[in-house]
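Marked as duplicate of an earlier ticket. Keeping the data here for the record.
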Amino acid sequence: MSDFAHQLNLSQIRDGQRLDLSADEAERAAITERLGLDGLERFDAHVALEREGEKVRAAGRIRAVLTQSCVATGEAVPAHVDEPFEILFLPEPQVGADEELELSDEDCDVVFHDGAAVDLGSALADTLGLALDPYPRSPNADEVLRSAGVLTEEQAGPFAALAKLKGLARE
């Protein structure tokens, strides 16, 4: 089952085609589970497609309204995503069993397809996942961490250690 069911048959994709997609309730629930979100109120994508043979480029913007769990407190942290994207769909490369496929930095937004269809919905859900804050924090996070004895970045960093040593040297 796809999280955001938008399979596009290659034979039906027109160069210059534009799509406006909105995830329905079931699709949002599947994406919420897949990405480990607390909730996903809205997920929309505006997409322009370019096609050259079996190569399809999808570019546009995703927008989402969601909640994530705070890494320190577990409280719900509201978030908004409004990100441009560009995804290149290419046919699955033919690599032998003993060969490795090397990807460059430019290939990071490449999604392979089976030659018949591209899974635009799944690629857009992956794009949303990459746009999320990996360490969402609620307003209470610093207080909870401090009370648990967790040092801040400034307290734990190398300059704090040097300052502490410098302070000891003066005594």
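See parent ticket for discussion. The chain has two domains: 7-139, 141-171.
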